[in-house]
Structure formats: structure tokens, C-alpha cells
Please model this.
Amino acid sequence: MVDSANGRGSGPVPHTFCRICEPGCGLVVVRDSAGNPVGLRPDKEHPGTHGFACAQGTQFLGTARHPSRLLQPLLRDSDGALAPTSWEKAFDHIGATLGRIHREHGPHSIGMYMGEPAGFGLMTLLATAAFTKALGTRNSFTSGPQDCNNKFWAAGEIYGHGAIHPIPDLDSCDLAVIIGMNPMVSKGSFMFLPDAMQRIRAIEKRGGRVWWVDPRRSESVRTCGRHLPIRPGTDIALLTWLIHELSATQGWAAAIRETPSLGDLKNALPSLPLELAERITGLDRDSLQALRTDFLKARSPILHMSVGVNFGPFGSLAYVLLHAAMLALGNVDRPGGWLYHPLGLRMGRWGPILGIGVQTQKSRIGGYVPVMDSLPGGILADEILTSGDDRIRALVVIAGNPIWSIPDETRLRQAFRSLDLLVVIDLFRSQTAEMAHAVLPGRTWLERADFATLGMVIQNREWLSYSKPVLPPAGESKSEWEILYRILAEMKVGGPVKTFLHRRLARLDHDRWLVRAQGLLSRLLDRKGKGRGRAIKVSAPTHEGRPSRASQHGDHTLHLFTPVLQAEVERLRKWLDRPRVEESKSEPKNEWIPLSMIGRRRPLMYNSWHGARTAGRARSAMDGRGGCGSEGPGGGDGSALLHPSTVSALGLMVGRPIELRRDGSGAVSLRWESSEDVLSGVVSVPHGLAEANMNRLIPSGSAAIEPSSGQHIMTAIPVSARRVRA
Model:
């Protein structure tokens, strides 16, 4: 029997924290009477999350123990198949091959790709940084350009370092305008709040207002607030219009005195009258004027944007304009507005000293400057396929599935097939792993000690979570730390002394040292025991009414208008001036009609984590529905959502899937569902499906990448659609 009161059968309660998304919610391992783990539940004793956790975290034990979990190393044999092998043979082969490539072709011939899960492991972050530094390669890629690198780049321009970001004070504001975020599913981003939706709903309960700006009537929109169904990819036009409106208010002069570059930015922005804003965004005049009125009436207004804007054609400039609007409203560094975390400000000072965000070597393809030490994933295929002395010939992938998460699957597959060596460290045989020469089993976050360091600079609370391992390592799995240092040792990079050091570091029992550090810090910083053995108290976000205190620039002001931002404004001007074709009402030509494709997350699938193939099958089995190739509507979160008018225009039939294509990229078929939640002419597709990769329809290369930040443009993608005939 399980004791539901304390989540255990006998012995001490094993507690941990989730490392799937930003809030890092506290969890307790549920055990049966024999002490065997049988599940995870929210930890009511966690001082930061107070018993909140979503299904992604509470169901993760099933992922850790999934029958498809990778439990031993695999090497490709003489027949071309991945076959089980020993760790020693795997290390010998990988080390010898990488060592030869490094010696013969130089450091940049080896690249690394780090997926989002790796960012949630302290020792993994340290090991990957050490690995790339030891190799001397500039070719470091992460999931950031498919997520939020626009914010890191813009923060570097505004504040002087990419780690400094304002935190919305949702608990005290009286107006929240949320653009491109669906916290009901994603749990929010760049705010690190447990149960963000409860806090957003509370705004209305205390008499405030909530606005959602989103092309889709999302799960969050259905719970509270007013919806602005904006045309995909046009958020930048809404923000540009808003800046011009706010510049006519009384607070504008004071904002310019605090931040002189605000005036330079506004003067450079193209004018955008209400009529043009209506036409571009698809929003009606009354709604835009009501939004403006709410901003001017609010005492403590907040603007916040997330991935839906990041993915647009001007994600970086949009983040700058978001700052400009908040400064104009006079609600930065104030309660009920934007706050700054002291650790974020310190990271702005310490980051360069610690070597964080200091990489400046431009990419061979496109000449991109790394953002937080990451190059754009959209050029990875070209860096491999384009001939030259520094062509990538080997790639090490850590906790990532780039075949499924970087746009243009077709070109990536071509590139990966040309590699001399592809090494994948993962939990499952993902689509990327299936192409690898070597696949190495990593460990889950239940099997390692950790600190929640990733988001501590933007969390809206004062607790830093930590955890011991709560499960033994599965099979022969090893930590990324041990794997990477052992590979360096076998490569013999840096000579005998460094090889000896790398070998010793590979043997380091870092879990034991982390647990010791947790105990020491708890005794020093939590003498009253308020952290309950789960967290240590650190600084909470603060406010001083001086936004300029966050600046790391020599003049101690925020820089909203720099030469690179001037180039972005000029790009915006050309985009606004381009001819616009209204939605066509004509009959489809050759059965195909044009649509604008947007993505969405699903409640129980976090991007392409853990191999979309395995997770997708687990999800399908759990909910009783077929895979994404199943026919007919009503497929729920695995379906393409289409407005009824679009369904009619396509002549879709029940029992027949829809086919989407982009020129030169092939086609994808999936089930569909008629929904009033999306705009006519828009198709909303789920991300991370096991059987259908929607990123296949998104182009790669410099034309599809934001020139400033390297952020990939991944929304409002022009596609064509037709019904699939029998």
C-alpha cells in the first residue's frame, strides 16, 4: 500500500524537483510498501512551488523507466546496423576518430549540438563548456535559436550582457498584456513561476485586466481575459503602433530622461497609423483603441512576450520594443511592473569573467556572431555540406534531436549522412540517434544530483532548489560529465598532462560532491531550516525605480538604439512597405490553397524531448488514439487545427487527412480538426509529433534566420494544403 499522506511506504521521503521546463516544481517520489518507486507527485513541502506540478513532471517516472530507454552503448557495425557494445570499445572508437579529425582538419571540424534538457543539468552545462573549450571549436550549437536567442541577443544590446532580463510582477500588476504565450500548456517562459495561470487569473479577481495576443484562441485564452486574434507574424506591427501611441503621453518625456536612446528608437521607427496597423495585424480598430485605453488607465501595466513572438520575423526588435513600451509606461524596476533579479545583475558583471557569453568567433557560413556562445542551428547543415578547410566533419549531440527540432529535416539528413562521425548522447534512439555512428546512454534528472541554476537569474522567487539522485542509474547509463571528459581523454587533446586531467575528471563522483555542497550551503544559508532540505534561500527580485541600474554599459544607460538595431529598424521599414495580399477568396488552384502555418505545444509533450518517436508512442497509447498519421478530425492535440471556412475551401472529408507542403521540402500528412479557435487561412500544427515532423516544412539557411540574433523564423510559414484523396 502507498501512504498517500507522505507518498511513501517506509523510510525517508525522496524529494526532487522537475527539470523539464522553467518553474522547476518540487516533486516527491511515491513508493509502495516495499519501498519501490511507483510514481511522482507534487511536493507540498517545497518552499518555492508549494505543491504545484503539472502532468509533464508527475508522469516522468514513466519516461525514466520506459521499455525503449537506451541502456547500453551502441556502435554501427560492419553491416551498417547499430549494435550493442561495451563502453571501452565505444570510447576507443569515438576518441580515435575524433582525435584524428581534430589533428588533420583542425578544431572547427568538430561541432557540438546541445539540446534543451542539457541546460537543466549543472554538471552537464559545465562539461559541455569544458568540452568545446578543450576542442577549441567555434561550432557550438544549441536549441536556443529555435527558442529564445532573440531575447539573449537583445538583452546583450540593451543591458550589455545576455543574462539580464526583467521579470514580470504578475502578483501586483493591474493589467497584463501577454503576447505569444500559452502558460496553460507551456507553464510560461522567462518568469520561472509555478502555476503561472493561477497568478494570471488572480489579476482579474482583484479587478485588473488581462489581454492575450495570439493567432489562436489557446487553452490560456479560454480561462480568462480578452483575446486579440492577431495575424501570425505581425506582432512587431502591433508593438510599433503602440510605441507611437505611447510617445504622445505625459510619461514620455520622463522616460527619455531616464533612457535617452528611447527617443532615438522612436524617431527611427517607421510611422504606423491606426488604419495600417489594422490592415497588417488583422485586428479591428475598436480592439486596438480599447487596448490603448487600458494601458493609459492602468496604474501597474505589464507587457510580456514569449515564443510566439520569438519565432516571428522580428523577434529581437520586438523584445527591444517591449522594453521601450514598458519604459514609456514608467513601470520598469517598480512593483507591479518589471523587476530585476540581483543574481541576473551580478551575472551581467560576472559572466565575462566566468567566460559565459563571451564567444565572438563568427560562423563560417553567414558570418553570425554567437549568442550566449551558440551559433544558429539553421546554418548547421550548410556548415557540414559546404566545402572548405573548416567544414564540420564530426558532430557530438547531447540531449538533443536536431533532425526533429531544427527546420528543414531533408537538408539536415543529407548533411548528417555526410559526416565522418555522428555521436549522440540521449535517453532513447531518437530520429537523430538512428543516423548516428555511436549512441551513448545518458541519465535522467531523477538519477543525478543537481542545483536549479539555469533559471535562477529570472525566477520570481527566492529559493534555489537542489536535489540528490532519487533513482539509481538505469542500465549502463553514464552522466554527460563522465562521457565528455572520457572522450577528451581518449582524443588526447592538449597533450599528456591534460589527458591525465581529463581522465581524472571523468572518474570524479560529482554527484557525491554536489550532495556535499548542498549540505554545506544549506547549513550556511538556511540555518532556520525554511528550505526543508529542498532549497536554499537566495535573493528575490527587487525594485529601486532606476532601470538604468541594470545596465552594464560604460554610460550606465539602457541602449535601445544601436547600429545593429538601426539595421533591424530598416529591415522593418521594408517589411512594412511591402505589398500585402489580402486573404484569397477564390477557389483553390490545382487543389492546393495557401495557408499560414503556426505551431503549438501539447500538454504532455515538451518539444522533441526524449526522442519524439518514443514519447509520441507513449502518448498515443496513453490517450487511446492513433498516431499523427491517423485519419479524420477530432484528433485532439495531435491534429492540425483549421477554421471551418478553410475546411470548406479545401473540401476536406471526414476520414481523410490533410496534406501540407512547402516547395522543395516534400509534404506532410496528418489528421485535422475543424476549430473556431484559429483564424481563416491559418493552420495550427502540433510540434514534436512522432510520425510527422512539421519542421520539415520550415526552410533553413540565412534567408530563414534573423540576421541580428540568428533566431530561426518558425511561425507564419507559407505552406500549401490540400485534402488527401483515397
Notes: DSSP finds 24 helices and 26 strands in the chain. Residues 1-6, 583-587, 610-635 have pLDDT under 50 and may be disordered. The longest strand covers residues 593-600.
